[in-house]
């Protein structure tokens, strides 16, 4: 199979979950004997064409058209401020990528694409161009929606692009049953929707591969000894991830378990607010804010050094961080209200329990979930073991890739 794969985020540019997904799933496709051609964004410092672990990556060099956008686009974009340059880059990436496929790779270099995979609104303009100018099968991957990400406060332009691409695509792949339900709420064509869960690499995320001395060194760095409970949050500092409510939960946690620290790792627009919250609640000794996007090896070490992980997302279509923590044998506390793929990942009760579901809007409930785990260290270890078993059985990249390729094959076969 020859797969054209359009994603704005691809190594070395990884901002969030989409970058991790794109890298892992395309590598699996190649391991399974397929040809993958990725089209992604170029910040001006990257090669326009290269091979990365068998994946052919195209990054057309951008030109800045943001200065002319206010003259030709609808009113909404005029109010994007600094975001207008981002939209400009995304738009030109789409135009150049689609143009390269249509005008160069297919007619001049004899490339053959069996299917085109479009990822989120960020590549949907290219998908719509390819739909209009070719007869290629197209699958639209929806990892989240604009309305969900922004709690209903987002861009109508972005929502329109999502909807148009969904209607134009032959099939839609989304990441959880919760997301499929959300798409139905927004009148997307759910008869086209297939659910394919994301995955994790259980060999990479394996606690047995992390030296104990490195774990102890990191805990010492954070002032955490063997008697101290280390809670870990990893994620973007954006309102839907719930880091602020987790901080607000900490005084309640500390009343019952004073020998506890929270390490909060992430970057985002809430940085100043997070710092203010930590200071105003007098938690500087108990909440360690790491304002960084950690490389993967450091993230793995942080999982290994923690006692439990908390991801109180208000909106989470899937939640790869929970899988990573479970693969590292850590019990998890997760937000489970509204659109939450975390509800499908984390088992909250019974002999196979892997963690606890909480109301992410309520710091008191988040604190209850954390305290319920800290009360029983033996049960925490059992949950951690259960979590890794669940990952191995249901949530590997190998499994995700096979299921995705099945959907691609169905679409391709419908053309013959």
Beta-strand content:
15-25%
Uncertain parts = none
User: What name is given to the CATH topology of the largest domain?
Assistant: Rossmann fold
Gyration radius from CA atoms, angstroms: 22 Å
- The helical percent reads 40-55%
How would you state the average pLDDT, rounded?
94
Q: Judging from the principal axes of the Cα atoms, what is the shape?
A: globular
DSSP, total strands: 14
Give the count of structural domains: 2
Which CATH top level class of the largest domain fits? Alpha Beta
Q: Profile the largest sheet.
A: 8 strands, mixed
Structure explained in plain terms:
Strand 10 (260-265), helix 11 (271-280) and strand 11 form a beta-alpha-beta unit. The chain has helices at residues 17-31, 69-72, 75-78, 83-109, 124-133, 146-149, 156-168, 177-185, 212-221, 243-256, 271-280, 296-305, 320-327, 342-345, 363-374, 377-394, 397-413; strands at residues 2-6, 35-39, 49-52, 55-58, 115-119, 138-142, 171-174, 193-195, 229-234, 260-265, 287-290, 308-311, 332-335, 355-358. The chain folds into two domains: 2-199 and 397-413, 3-Layer(aba) Sandwich (Rossmann fold); 207-394, Glycogen Phosphorylase B (Rossmann fold), CATH 3.40.50. The strands form two sheets. The protein has an eight-stranded mixed beta sheet, sandwiched between helices. The protein starts with a strand and ends with a helix. The model has no long low-confidence stretch (mean pLDDT 94). The longest helix has 27 residues, at 83-109. The protein is of the alpha/beta class and 416 residues long.
């Amino acid at each position: 199979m020859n797969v054209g794969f359009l994603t704005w985020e691809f190594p070395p540019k990884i901002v969030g979950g989409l970058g991790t997904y794109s890298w892992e799933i395309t590598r699996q496709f190649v391991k399974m004997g397929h040809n993958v051609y990725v089209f992604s964004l170029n910040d001006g410092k990257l090669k326009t064409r290269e091979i990365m672990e068998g994946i052919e990556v195209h990054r057309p060099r951008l030109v800045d058209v943001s200065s002319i956008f206010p003259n030709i686009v609808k009113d909404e974009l005029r109010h994007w401020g600094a975001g207008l340059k981002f939209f400009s880059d995304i738009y030109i990436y789409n135009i150049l990528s689609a143009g390269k496929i249509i005008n160069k790779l297919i007619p001049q270099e004899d490339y053959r694409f069996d299917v085109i995979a479009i990822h989120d609104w960020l590549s949907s303009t290219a998908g719509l161009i390819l739909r209009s100018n070719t007869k290629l099968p197209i699958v639209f991957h929806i990892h989240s929606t604009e309305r969900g990400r922004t709690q209903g406060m987002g861009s109508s332009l972005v929502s329109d692009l999502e909807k148009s691409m969904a209607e134009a695509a032959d099939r839609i792949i989304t990441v959880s049953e919760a997301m499929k339900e959300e798409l139905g709420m927004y009148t997307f064509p759910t008869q086209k929707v297939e659910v394919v869960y994301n995955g994790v690499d259980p060999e990479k995320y394996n606690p047995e591969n992390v030296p104990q001395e490195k774990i102890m060194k990191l805990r010492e760095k954070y002032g955490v000894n063997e008697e101290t409970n280390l809670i870990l949050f990893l994620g973007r500092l954006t309102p839907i991830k719930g880091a602020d409510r987790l901080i607000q939960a900490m005084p309640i946690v500390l009343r019952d378990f004073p020998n506890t620290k929270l390490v909060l790792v992430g970057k985002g627009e809430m940085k100043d607010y997070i710092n203010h919250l930590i200071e105003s609640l007098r938690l500087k000794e108990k909440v360690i804010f790491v304002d960084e996007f950690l490389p993967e090896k450091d993230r793995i070490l942080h999982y290994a050094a923690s006692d439990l992980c908390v991801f109180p997302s208000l909106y989470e279509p899937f939640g790869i961080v929970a899988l990573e923590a479970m693969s590292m044998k850590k019990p998890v506390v997760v937000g489970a209200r509204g659109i939450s793929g975390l509800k499908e990942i984390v088992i909250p009760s019974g002999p196979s329990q892997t963690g606890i579901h909480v109301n992410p809007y309520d710091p008191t409930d988040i604190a209850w979930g954390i305290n319920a785990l800290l009360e029983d260290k033996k049960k925490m270890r059992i949950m951690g073991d259960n979590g890794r078993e669940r990952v191995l059985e249901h949530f590997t990249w190998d499994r995700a890739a096979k299921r995705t390729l099945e959907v691609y094959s169905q679409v391709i076969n419908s053309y013959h």
